[in-house]
Specification:
The chain has seven helices and 20 strands. The chain is α+β, with helices and mostly antiparallel strands and 292 residues long.
Length: 292
């Protein structure tokens, strides 16, 4: 199948915050052989490649963005690969939605990912950001990752070569900027009922502490060592603060939400205000998650 190239893709239409202008092009991959064409395309153009996934955890700027969005579509769902000493190895395409993987694991009675209930991104995004919540980090489950680059092609990299940190993934002996194509994780055997119960508990907690149905990109600032950015923003008086149609959620101050018709400029203004007020009042410097 041929690589599909979509000119002028809207970032607002592709991100959960519904913000941002347009990228130069979107390359849609349907199977591994499309990667060769992507390699040729990327070596001919000087665009920065950016894997968009399901557009969560992203704040895209207004105006034109000099990037090539990359999106994999139609990759196979999860499959059981083998039983190892630690549990059952499950393989899936990086473009699979994380909630889809969690739903599959629940039906199969496999435990290990329940803490990530309610995170909306892709499996590849969960690797790239080492998605974490309620004591679970995706990286803890990874046994190997299949990475791609135009010069190196596809290659499996074992967890022993990967470095997972707080919202961070790297393979120290490889250059950065590789596309995550497939992932293998290890899950343990439980029952569908027990896994469903654990997922319900996590979702119940999230529903009362996070704005789960609002248009947001999850937490906008990383947590500083030993503290919570949400708590600090709250203490600094930022809860519910608005700029135009963008606001810090009044449920959880570290969630920036689009009330409808917000702009990236308003979002960036609010982020700078939050950062400045927390620095001045509490002496802590906050760092943002992903902005493109
Ligand atoms: N808090 C406040 N006011 C607020 C928000 C929080 O006082 O507006 C207090 C809470 O009462 C609690 C403490 O701050 O005592 C921590 O809050 P919470 O349990 O909600 O955790 P968090 O540190 O704010 C982190 C992750 C979330 C993840 C939750 C649950 C980051 C930046 N945030 O939030 O991840 O879902 O823990 O494990 O690491 C994300 O990364 O996008 C994200 C949403």
């Amino acid at each position: 199948m041929a690589l599909q190239l979509i000119p002028d893709p809207s970032l607002a239409e592709r991100t959960t915050l519904r913000l941002g202008g347009h990228a130069e092009v979107e390359a849609v991959l349907r199977e591994a052989s499309d990667l060769d064409e992507l390699g040729t395309f990327l070596t001919r153009h000087t665009l920065r490649p950016f894997v968009i996934g399901r557009g969560s955890n992203l704040l895209a700027r207004d105006g034109r963005c000099d990037i090539a969005l990359i999106r994999a579509a139609g990759q196979p769902g999860p499959t059981r690969v083998e039983r190892s000493d630690e549990g059952l190895v499950v393989r899936c395409g990086a473009a699979l939605a994380l909630p889809g993987l969690l739903g599959w694991a629940q039906r199969a009675g496999l435990t290990g990912l329940e803490g990530l209930t309610g995170i909306p991104g892709t499996v590849g995004g969960a690797v790239a950001m080492n998605a974490g919540s309620y004591g679970v980090e995706f990286g803890q489950r990874v046994s190997r990752v299949r990475l791609w680059s135009p010069s190196g092609g596809l290659t499996w990299v074992g967890a022993d070569r990967c470095s997972f940190g707080y919202r961070r993934f790297a393979v120290p002996d490889l250059p950065a900027g590789r596309l995550i194509w497939e992932v293998e994780i290890v899950l343990e055997t439980s029952t569908p009922r027990a896994v469903r119960q654990a997922m319900r508990e996590v979702y119940g907690k999230k529903r009362t502490t996070q704005p789960v149905t609002a248009r947001s990109a999850g937490c906008v600032f990383k947590n500083p060592e030993g503290d919570s950015a949400g708590r600090l923003l709250d203490r600094a008086g930022m809860k519910g603060m608005r700029r135009g149609q963008m606001a810090f959620s009044d449920i959880h101050s570290n969630f920036l939400i689009n009330l409808g018709g917000g702009t990236s400029a308003q979002a960036l203004d609010l982020i700078e205000l939050g950062r400045e007020v927390v620095k001045t009042r509490l002496g802590v410097t906050l760092e943002t998650e992903v902005i493109i």
